[in-house]
Structure formats: structure tokens, C-alpha cells
TrEMBL record:
This is Tryptophan synthase beta chain. Residues 62-384 form the Tryptophan synthase beta chain-like PALP domain. Pathway: Amino-acid biosynthesis; L-tryptophan biosynthesis; L-tryptophan from chorismate: step 5/5. Pfam families: PALP. The keyword NADP does not apply. Belongs to the TrpB family. Its EC number is 4.2.1.20. HAMAP family: Trp_synth_beta. The keyword Cell cycle does not apply. GO terms for cellular component: cytoplasm. Tetramer of two alpha and two beta chains.
């Protein structure tokens, strides 16, 4: 019997979680990924690196973020106790800064001068631009022209933070083209720059590295929950886009008898193109350099996906989620746009916390199952705050009267 903790066992040294993960990239990218992997393995053991990251988390990010007992919601739903891990209180308002600061520090230790990435809605771009400013690194964010027009406030934020936003004007001018453009820019100068992926996706070592940087959410949660209640939660729930906030909180409880539920966006319904529920409806395939479960169209290419939450709008999922679901260590649920918006208003009006629409998916599932689980405790990862979403929500749903 193998008693090594799960996190030390997975992934293997090639980046596999069972059949999922790995690195399926052209030779020039493989070389660059190998360099990042070697540096990360060295630096992750380095006491200066660890001490520096601790200092940053405490004094710059404002960690640990609290766990909050949502007493009004718990009372309203009359079942399980509902607790929230408040990643919305992490600096910049979401969990993404946890891995961006790690990636920035790694780049600094590697002697890099520039961080490069793509962004869809701009959340990853803003977090990375923040990290770049902190470390005195240049930052170049590639973004489709369609997204630039849609996500104006985040474009402004990135520029204020000193990042260069590169408009991508070919193809559909959205996330996929932005990935191609960013990789191309990176491969022009892999010596001085580092590519920084925004979730637990992409070729090895990114799914491992981003997970490792996010484990702080789970480590804190376990300690705080025990201190608050004297026991572990029965159920931990997080939304899953690429899967970084979910892996962060799950990793704190993965070796314990705690139920772990990932929530995928059902969007407008279960027809292909109307949702982004990759684990629920997808099949095995390779995309963006890794093997996982993905949504495919009839020509075997990534299917078009949709969710009201732009951070969950991705046709694949981190390989570790594919593995954990496959071995039945995690469960997957789906939540529609409408259910997510209803939870958005519930938390705002009941507790005075406006959540990100992404996080509202996780909360919505907790509210759905809570009434029948009296005596149990549910911990929800509130991955981000909803300031970015308020104009859009009010325009589409008013102040929630009709929900
Ligand atoms: C980006 C984002 C997500 C989705 O990303 P994961 O990698 O699945 O965590 C979830 N919540 C918020 C607030 C985000 O900004």
C-alpha cells in the first residue's frame, strides 16, 4: 500500500495524472517547457523562494483570506451550514493572483525580464499585470480584438498597471487566436521571457505548477475550518473553468474523507454550444498541448462553448480534474446561467457579499443541496468578487426581482 500523500504522487514526472495531462507540443515549445519545469523543480525546494512567496502572500495579497459562516443563507435554506472561503478578498479580487505571483517570482528567479500571456475576459491579464508590476517585469498580454471591445474596464486596468496589450486581429479574434499569438511572441524570445498560463491547463509543468501555487487556498481552509468548527467540512464545492480555484481548495482535503464537488456551467442548456460543461458532456482528446476531457464538434475540433461567466467558458478542463473524476474521487454537477444569477443576488442581498458570476455557480449548487443535508457542513470556494459583473447583470436581469 502506498501512503505517500496524493499531492506527492501526482502528476508523474512526465506530467501525467493517470492517462491525462502530459505535453503534446512542437519541439521548440517542448524545449521551453522543459526549461521551466527544471527551474520550477529546483526553485520549489529553495528556502529563499518559499520565504519570499510567504512574505508576498501575507503583506501584498492580504492572506490568509478568511472563512465566513453564511448565517443568513444557512438560516434561509434551513439545512446544511454554508461556509465561504473568501478568495474575493485576495488582492485584485480573485484567486488568480495566487498563481500569478508564483509565476512572477519564478520568472524573477530564472532571470527573465518579461511575462507573456493571453487573456480572454481579461481577468488573467489583470492578475498577471499586477504580478509584473510588483516584480518590476515587463508584461505583454495578447487579447482578441472582439474581447478588447467587450472587456473594456479590464483593458484599462492592464494598461494602468503598465502592461502592453497586444490586439489580435486574425481568425475569430478571441481567446484561441490570442493563445496562438502569445505563444508566437514567446517563442521569439524564450530566453528573456516567460509564458504564464492562467489555469491548471496547458502542457506540463503548468497544470502541476499552477495547482501547487493554488494549494495555499486548501491548506488555509483546512486549518481555518478545523479551528472554527472543530471538524472538517462534509462537502467542498468549487466552480470549474480550467479548474485552478477548484484544485486549490480540493488539494487541502484530497486525502481526507471529504466529498469534493466541481461545478460546471450549463449555460442555456445541454445542447452542444449552449454550455461549457466539459467533464459532464465531453470525451477524451488533446487540445492546447495536453490530454484531457473536452467538448468536440463533429469535425473533432474543440466545440464552441458558452457560459454567462466568461471565466468558465472553456471547451476543456485541467487534466487533474479529468483524472480525479475518472477515479471517482470528485463529483461533477452543473448549474445554469439562471441558477447562477439567482445565487448571485441571494448572496448579495442575504449576506452583503457580491460574488463573481463564476463563483455564483459553486454557491448555487450548495444552495441546491443544502436543504436536504441538515447537520452537515458545506464549504464553498468563493473564487472572486462580482464588481466586474454588476453592469452586465443589471442590464440583463435588473435587480433580481424576476428570479
Ligand atoms: C478565472 C476565474 C475562474 C475560473 O478559473 P479556474 O481556473 O477554473 O478557477 C473562477 N472564478 C473567478 C472569479 C475567475 O476569475
Amino acid at each position: 500500500m502506498n501512503h505517500k500523500p496524493y499531492l506527492k504522487q501526482f502528476p508523474d514526472e512526465k506530467g501525467f495524472f493517470g492517462a491525462y495531462g502530459g505535453s503534446y507540443v512542437p519541439e521548440n515549445i517542448a524545449k521551453a517547457m522543459e526549461e521551466i519545469n527544471t527551474a520550477y523543480n529546483l526553485i520549489a525546494q529553495n528556502s529563499d523562494f518559499i520565504a519570499e512567496l510567504r512574505k508576498i502572500r501575507k503583506h501584498f495579497q492580504g492572506r490568509p483570506t478568511p472563512i465566513y459562516f453564511a448565517h443568513n443563507l444557512t438560516h434561509k435554506y434551513g439545512g446544511a451550514g454554508i461556509y465561504l472561503k473568501r478568495e474575493d478578498l485576495n488582492h485584485t479580487g480573485a484567486h488568480k493572483l495566487n498563481h500569478c505571483m508564483g509565476e512572477g517570482l519564478l520568472a524573477k528567479f530564472m532571470g527573465k525580464k518579461k511575462l507573456i500571456a493571453e487573456t480572454g475576459a481579461g481577468q488573467h491579464g489583470v492578475a498577471l499585470a499586477t504580478a509584473a508590476a510588483y516584480f518590476g517585469l515587463e508584461c505583454e498580454i495578447h487579447m482578441g480584438e472582439v474581447d478588447i471591445a467587450k472587456e473594456h474596464p479590464n483593458v484599462v486596468r492592464m494598461k494602468i498597471l503598465g502592461a502592453k496589450v497586444v490586439p489580435v486581429s486574425f481568425g475569430a479574434k478571441t481567446l484561441k487566436e490570442a493563445v496562438d499569438s502569445a505563444f508566437e511572441a514567446y517563442l521569439k524570445d524564450p530566453i528573456n521571457s516567460m509564458y504564464a498560463i492562467g489555469s491548471v491547463v496547458g502542457p506540463h509543468p503548468f497544470p502541476k505548477m499552477v495547482r501547487d501555487f493554488q494549494t495555499i487556498v486548501g491548506v488555509e481552509s483546512k486549518e481555518q475550518f478545523l479551528e472554527m468548527t472543530g471538524e472538517l467540512p462534509d462537502i467542498v464545492i468549487a466552480c470549474v473553468g480550467g479548474g485552478s480555484n477548484a484544485m486549490g481548495i480540493f488539494s487541502g482535503f484530497i486525502d481526507d474523507a471529504v466529498e469534493l464537488i466541481g461545478v460546471e456551467p450549463l449555460g442555456m442548456g445541454d445542447a452542444l454550444g449552449d454550455h461549457a460543461a466539459s467533464l459532464t458532456y465531453g470525451s477524451e482528446g488533446i487540445m492546447h498541448g495536453f490530454n484531457s476531457i473536452m467538448l468536440k464538434s463533429s469535425d473533432n475540433n474543440p466545440a464552441p462553448v458558452y457560459s454567462i461567466a466568461s471565466g468558465l467558458d472553456y471547451p476543456s478542463v485541467g487534466p487533474e480534474h479529468a483524472y480525479l473524476h475518472h477515479i471517482k474521487r470528485t463529483q461533477v454537477a452543473t448549474i445554469s446561467d439562471k441558477e447562477a444569477i439567482s445565487a448571485f443576488f441571494d448572496l448579495s442581498k442575504q449576506e452583503g457579499i457580491i460574488p463573481a458570476i463564476e463563483s455564483s455557480h459553486a454557491l448555487a449548487h450548495a444552495l441546491k443541496i443544502a436543504p436536504t443535508l441538515k447537520g452537515k457542513k458545506i464549504l464553498v470556494n468563493l473564487s472572486g468578487r462580482g464588481d466586474k459583473d454588476i453592469d452586465f447583470v443589471v442590464e440583463k436581469y435588473g435587480y433580481g426581482e424576476s428570479l
